[in-house]
Amino acid sequence: MAFWRSKITPSQPESNDATPSGEPAGTGRLFSKFSNGLQKTRRVLGTDIRDLFKSEGRLVDEEFLNELFARLIRTDMGTGPANKIRDEVARQYRGRVVHLEEVIATITDEVREQLRQDHGGLAKSDSGPTVVLVVGVNGSGKTTSIGKLANHLNSIGHSLVLGAGDTFRAAAVEQLTIWAGRIGCEIVTGKSGVDPASIAYQSVDKAIELGSDYVIIDTAGRLQTQSNLMQELQKIRKVIDKRLPGAPHEVLLVLDATAGQNAISQAKGFSAAAGCTGIVLAKLDGSAKGGVVLPIHEQFQLPVKFVGLGEGLTDMAAFDPDSFAEALFQN
């Protein structure tokens, strides 16, 4: 078992995107980050919806509503959320001639309402370190998301320990070690193939010893259909709870936004099996399917806590429904 502490001094961002609890701080800056990250999706939506209108406006009839529905579906928001938007536009404007700006405002409000959530911030334990377990399928961006989350917490003044629990993938351990070096935080690693539960235990133990605020533990990528790996997750949870009763305090499920509806089908059942408490939506900037946030929120009944908006360590933002809804449809 190895304990590392980097001597690299982390660079601090000029301003932060969230308070220590993970709640959005500057809505203007958040809107800017979401706006940049949603360029591809907004370009598709903007072109498609604008094509429905003429300079003199458009009559809201069944033909218009069906065309609007088809445009919304292209963002992978799914039939449920798209139907709700269609119905709200129909309720307000059916039989009227309306202009683009009116409809966009209504759609934005409806998306904002659909994404409303009560518990968006990252949990914080009352005493001792807050333990965050991170799960997801292979290729979802899980390990990179851990690096971004760790940097986010470090940049707002929290001390933390990383646990390289994906012990069957050397590249994941190496990547996480590099992230730890850049950030300047502790990392616990082990030999290839070592029991991931032991890494989790040692990570929590190290965080307690150091008095760290957070410990973030990586896990091997898996599908929810792999019962043996799901049992391994349950073992990890039990081991963590044994060392620190009540932990883990967060179990974050990382989903790949570029996979669209496939991300949902891959992860069905995952949240229940792993006891997930929230979602990190990775690679949002690389997708024209940003509307997938809506069915994810609808189907999993879990708050979206963070979104990945680029490749850099600072390219993660605490999720804010208001800023997201506005950035999805407005420049």
Instruction: Summarize the biggest pleated sheet.
Output: 9 strands, mixed
**Fraction of residues in helix:** 40-55%
Number of strands: 11
Q: Structural class of the helices, strands and pairings?
A: alpha/beta
The oligomeric state of the chains shown is single chain
Q: What would you call the shape? A: elongated
- What's the arrangement of strands in the largest beta sheet? 1-6-5-7-4-8-9-10-11
Could you tell me the mean pLDDT?
82
Low-confidence stretches: 1-26
Q: What is the first-to-last residue Cα distance?
A: 50 Å
The secondary-structure element order is EHHEHHEHEHEHEHEHEHHEHEEH
Number of helices: 13
Strand content: 5-15%
**What integer value in Å does the Rg equal?**
21 Å
Q: What does the model show?
A:
The protein contains 13 helices and 11 strands. It is an alpha/beta fold. The strands form 2 sheets. It has a 9-stranded mixed beta sheet, with helices on both faces. Strand 9, helix 12 and strand 10 form a beta-alpha-beta unit.
